[in-house]
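Objective 1b. Sequence-to-structure analysis of protein-tyrosine-phosphatase.
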Amino acid sequence: MRVLFVCLGNICRSPTAEGMFRRHLDEAGLAGRVEVDSCGIGPWHAGKAPDARAQAAAAARGLDLSGLRARQLDDDDFGRFDYLLAMDHDNLAALEARRPADSDAHVGLFLSFAGLPDRAVPDPYYGGDDGFEEVLDLVEAASRGLVEDVRRRLEEGA
């Protein structure tokens, strides 16, 4: 099972989601059965570590994002990942526009797994520290739901 988190530049929201989801997989005993990655729609930050503010907010909750590096979405991702999860509606539209007709990957908004099917994870890049805290709260809630969905799919396939 493979999960890809997608935002605009891959330095705030999607690496935060990657780190939080990894923690929830580990707590659920599923870490060895699920591959997790994140990327951005655009190339602006490729090769860079997550935003320092995102790292600091995550570290305060025991998550280390320092080893992650930004990358851009690749067309091959649609064949490699079972889930491609967008942080907002613009990211989702970009994914849908690039999605090959034969892709059977689940492409959708990440917060749908928190029972918020139309809600976006707000981009904290141009705001204050409270925006990074809100991102963490939202991705934590969605991570719990996604773990349960992944668990169900793994059990069905077993």
